[in-house]
Amino acid sequence: MLVTDFRTADLPVAERFGSWHDMTAKALIPNVIRSDHEADFRARARVLQLGDLQVSALAYPALETRRSTQLIRRSDPDGYQMMLSLRGGHRILQAGRDSVCGAGDMMLYDTSRPWHGWTADDSDRVKGVMVAFPRALLPLPADELDRLTAVPLPGREGLGAVLSGYLVQLTAGAAAYTPADDSRLAACTLDLLTAYLAHYLDADASVPPSARHKAQLLQIRAFVQRHLDDPDLSPGAIAAAHHMSLRSLHRLFQQEGLTVAGWIRGRRLESCRRDLADPLLRSRSVRAIAARWGFSDPAHFSRAFRAAYGMSPGEYRHLVPTGLDSSMAGAKSPADAPA
């Protein structure tokens, strides 16, 4: 995987804006940009190349950008960009639309059409994640996607929350990825993008089953993570919350080589293990930590912890200062085991 980190703060002040302009033209897409902060332009980017997909975490001052017909003729990747705004916002003129998206929103741009854009006036600092991908990779009708071009889309609920959380984690964890992860991460990213856009096109029939399944599974996993402290969390409760049958829920996890109950238990054990290793939580009892993550029976928790990690919770907490926790950091999580 090719990961590029770029910080204008590493450059002489006079070179910062010009270097950012050149970097974005080469690594992202050619634009003409201007900014009131050109005299000392402090910006940073982390660009992940996942095959034909590119995911970039960006932070920069307020600016204005134009992509003209001439630039498109010179360089037209025939693709899209999806921008997730994390701080500040964007205004764009494209395809006859004048749209503004704020923090938590997403917007789809067509790289084959001219645009004129600005960061929102109420913020001098913008942060976001940009996904760029060829049009041909998206298994959705191009004429239908035109309806979503330069239209603000929500990123704080439903599939939007799943996609937003995934993109933030994807860019933050880049240092831990290996070349073997490229194709898997590219497929997962494309699946989520497809499911998200199809939701707003009402075009689920055109979405490959694998994309729908992946998006649904990630949505359910996010739900489970939010409710780990509920001792009544069960496969039945999860199925009801997602308006699906219990059989469908079990089948979804079976396709990943997992069981629903096993995955819940594994996530709870990982959360307990993390708390037991936290020196700030030394005064909290093992029983309290177990209860915090949904284990209402201390004896059951102790047996499950020993089965997963080869020792009791108390023994683990005692041995953590010796460096045991760091040695276990790369171990396979019990949440990923087909319990």
UniProtKB/TrEMBL annotation:
**Pfam families (alphabetical):** AraC_binding_2, HTH_18
Q: Do you know which PROSITE patterns this protein is assigned to?
A: HTH_ARAC_FAMILY_2
Superkingdom of origin organism: Bacteria
Please name the source species: Streptomyces chromofuscus
Gene Ontology MF: a single term: sequence-specific DNA binding
Database matches in Gene3D superfamilies: Homeodomain-like (1.10.10.60)
Please report the stretch or stretches of sequence annotated as the HTH araC/xylS-type domain.
218-319
The protein in question is named: Helix-turn-helix domain-containing protein
Keywords of the record, alphabetical order, are: DNA-binding, Transcription, Transcription regulation
